[in-house]
Amino acid sequence: MLPISFASLVLLWFSLETFGAPTDAVPLAGQTIPLRRRSPNGLNVTELAQLAKSQRDAVLTKYGGPSVEKRSTGYNLIVNQLYDSGYYGSLAIGTPPVSFDVLLDTGSSDLWVAGTSCGIACNGLGMFDPSASSTFTNQSTSFYIQYGSGEAAGYIAADTVQMAGFSVSDQGFAVVDAISEGLLTSPLSGLLGLAWSTIAASRQTPFWETLASSGAWDSPLFAVQLTRYDGRLCKLCNNDLIQHRFINDTSAQQLEPGGVLTFGYTNSSLYTGSIEYIDIPGTPTYWYLPLETLTVQGNSITLSSGSLAAIDTGTTNIAGPLDAVEAIYAQIPGSQPATSSWEGYYQFPCSTQVNVAFSFGGTTWSMSPADFTFAQISSSECIGAFFEANTGAGSATPSWIIGDAFLKNVYSVFQYNPPSIGFAALSETALAENGLDAPVPTPTIGSVSAEVTNNSAASPRHRLSPTSMGFSIVVLFALLL
Questions:
Q1: Closest CA to 370 of 83, 104, 49, 52
Q2: What's the predicted TM-score (pTM) here?
């Protein structure tokens, strides 16, 4: 295999979009999906700067503007990759089924995997072999998508796809036979988009939407809990950070338990109190919400009227409009715009604990000071997680991209009907998984408890052009942000 630079890995992760095992009993006939996570704990300052630049570029590119046998539930354990940089899970394609690791991205809508016809750029990756599946069909339609970190091309196909105990026959997806070098890095084989069909570059109905719309799930929703292993803030550890369950895990590996993705139910052991749901305005495209208030160090930041925020598991950090990001750092004495590869980011004194809170509905949700710090670039200076990216090009385009830096602090629920997003406070059980010394989850496809046939494709009327799409993922879902 040709050597792949970490910079290339970063580009991959930020252009794409990645969980912990539940501790309570799964509902009848239920199954779960383990997640793994990525994080940049061992990166030097130059590599972190390249990662930051790639993340910002990817956000700008990305947001430029059936029959059912029975209802059920399931889960998939997630992997935390490269120290909170992204999170991925596993699914299976074909007959007989073959497992693949894919970035989990609520910021895009396409499923694609590298095929055996892919060139040198796919060496060392798990690749899908169409000739080995008896249920594979080639749709003879070309597929092309461009991300901030590269591009991918191939063709649209259909086959049986399994994940978390659910099976969808004739699921549309893309088999990629040409990608930019470094766009994918082992163990990833592709990306699973978890946004709505209206923005699918492939025009295929997403796997999750097929299941939710068909009634295969007990409840029409999926939920995500993400872990934290980032050990970059060891000099800042104190009581406040401990209360937020920040883990100074200097022994964290590139792959760690990442949390859990559940289909068809919410895991009550992972959150406390009630889940607050906020309706998605208009026709669902991205998972976005009106951002009502944002406070930094207790002071309110002025927001543009009608500010929309995309909730994106495939993005590591948080992107916002230039004037708002300037106002955020104006609340932090000693902060200033960063330069060179850090353009669009700000640096601030590492000794400052920055408290940020968001309100999307009636409740205010806090972000740990540990998650505000993205990188430490000197003995006293750190880079913040908020960066400038004027993505909003229209009334239905989100101007804020809220990634894993915030999502690690809440239990997140994505509901099909009514289209809405819910947040809840993490339970002690969920918080205890941060930095937990445990084996990396193995693929958790699950025995099939519900089967669905996918006979529909996304309406081309609402389809965005491929060049307006970008990967925000997994668990690599977060490297760039």
A1: 83
A2: 0.82
